[in-house]
């Protein structure tokens, strides 16, 4: 059945893929964005669709929109961007969640929060299951993002308990793919852009820290799966459980681009997690989720995209 779906942060990297997929499934999509890190260009190909609307708004201010479902994707996700104005980042997570939850309460919309693996901080258990409560430095430079997302999760579950709001919470692990902003400082986009431009690849620390990289199409399928399943709120991990060191990633990007770039080593930023890998058991059990795109294949597709835009 066709639904009216509000996607905040819809002009961003993941949000734009979500807009595209939900439109292709016949829904009416309202893309809302303040264009801090998102770009109109990311959704330009959707503008001619009658079922697509775009609204410039900042979720730190209240709003009034009738929708059947709300995907709250709005928040800068890369450390460079969320640390640019940390107070604003906290406001986006906390005030933004409150405003959208109030809308969901008023309209009885089902609402999904894009939370993050960062709620686990620098994890002491590995891989991370949803029952792990995390190891976050509340006063560090990543706290505006990590603690903001943790507070947003609290608000979601309080709205469910207090008002019966239909919530969904997904904890997204590092995701990459076409439409990542080439300047947003994340490791996959940085390495690909550096390799294609023949610049040195910047490894922070010794490159032994690990991440699990998920191709955006897999993630979007999982997010919609959680939103559409009945009787389960999450929190649910989504990502890809292949685990790679940052150095392995750099070497793979050099090989796949055929670049002659060298690697340079820079200081590791404060509170940078040493390892990260999702336990996907719950996602498999509740929505039959399994990632399908291996890192190598996802990188090839992403490199192809960056070759066109830089
Ligand atoms: P992104 O920066 O490309 O997209 C975020 C979008 O939100 C942008 O379009 C931006 O302009 C918009 N936005 C930011 N603040 C806003 C505000 N106050 N009001 C309205 N719009 C606002 O990042 P992304 O990678 O697409 O991430 C989308 C969501 O997924 C974020 O909530 C992020 O925290 C979460 N997430 C992403 C990853 C990842 O690896 N990409 C991992 C974990 C969680
Ligand atoms: N990183 C790196 N070089 C870069 C950008 C990031 O070595 O040019 C490292 C970063 O220190 C972290 C990992 O890659 O250990 C992933 O960083 P990203 O910002 O992509 O995501 P997050 O830290 O939020 O997982």
From TrEMBL:
Compartments where located: Cytoplasm
Entries under CDD domains matching the protein: UGD_SDR_e
GO cellular component: cytoplasm
MF term (GO), any: UDP-glucuronate decarboxylase activity
Domain NAD-dependent epimerase/dehydratase: 5-229
Co-factor(s): NAD(+)
Keywords: Cytoplasm, Decarboxylase, Lyase, NAD
One BP annotation, GO: D-xylose metabolic process
Top-level taxonomic group: Bacteria
Annotated protein name in UniProt: NAD-dependent epimerase/dehydratase
The species this protein was found in: Leptonema illini DSM 21528
């Amino acid at each position: 059945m066709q639904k009216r779906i509000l996607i905040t942060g819809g002009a961003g990297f993941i949000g734009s893929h979500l807009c595209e997929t939900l439109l292709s499934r016949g829904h009416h999509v309202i893309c809302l964005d303040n264009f801090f890190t998102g770009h109109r260009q990311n959704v330009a190909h959707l503008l001619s669709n009658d079922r697509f609307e775009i609204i410039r708004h900042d979720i730190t201010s209240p709003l009034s929109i009738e929708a059947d479902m709300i995907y709250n994707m709005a928040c800068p996700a890369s450390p460079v961007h969320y640390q640019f104005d940390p107070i604003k980042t906290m406001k986006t997570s906390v005030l933004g969640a409150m405003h959208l939850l109030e809308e969901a309460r008023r309209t009885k919309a089902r609402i999904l929060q894009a939370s993050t693996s960062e709620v686990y901080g620098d994890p002491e258990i590995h891989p991370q299951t949803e029952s792990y409560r995390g190891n976050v430095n509340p006063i560090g430079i990543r706290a505006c993002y990590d603690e903001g997302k943790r507070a947003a999760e609290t608000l979601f579950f309080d709205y469910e308990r207090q008002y019966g709001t239909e919530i969904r919470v997904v904890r997204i692990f590092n995701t990459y793919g076409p439409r990542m902003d080439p300047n947003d400082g994340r490791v996959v986009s940085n390495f690909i852009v550096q390799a294609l431009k023949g610049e040195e690849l910047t490894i922070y620390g010794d490159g032994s820290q690990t991440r699990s990289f998920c191709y955006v199409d897999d993630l979007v399928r999982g997010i919609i799966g959680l939103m559409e399943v009945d009787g389960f709120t999450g929190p649910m991990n989504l990502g890809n459980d292949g685990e790679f060191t940052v150095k392995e990633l750099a070497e793979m990007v050099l090989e796949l681009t055929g670049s002659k770039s060298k690697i340079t080593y820079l200081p590791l930023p404060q509170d940078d997690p040493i390892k990260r890998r999702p336990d996907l058991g719950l996602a498999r059990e509740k929505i039959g989720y399994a990632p399908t795109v291996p890192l190598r294949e996802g990188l090839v597709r992403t490199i192809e995209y960056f070759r066109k835009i830089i």
